Each structure stands twice: as structure tokens, then as C-alpha cells.
Amino acid sequence: GIAEFTLQQPELKEGTLLLFEGPTTGAVQTQADELRVDGEKTRHARKGDRVTVEVPAKVRRNDRVFELSDR
Model's pTM, two decimal places? Predict the structure, then answer.
């Protein structure tokens, strides 16, 4: 499937681990292997960009999106 969201953090880079979470969806983790902004393939997105990524399962409109990172 495909997920589209507006980026709220300063930057998102290709290859970043993402977690989509919602009451019906549960938790869906994916790696942003390919980012698209306004339909164009890109290596990074900036705050306010409308980002599209592939996801392995259905995610929903009100799901929250988190960036996963090592601490």
C-alpha cells in the first residue's frame, strides 16, 4: 500500500525507519526506501512537505507516524 502524510519534523531522509500507529491499524513498521514529494522521487523531505511512502499493510487517515531511531 501507499501512505501519504504532511511532514511535521524538520527533515526525513530516505532509508528512515517509520512506525504508523492507530487504534484500528495497530503498529506498522516500514523503512522509507523511496520517498516522494509532490509525486517526484527524492532522497529527503522537509517540514511541510506532503510525503508518500510504500507501506506493507493498510494504514488509515488518522494514524500517527513516528520516526524510529537508535538511542
Answer: 0.90
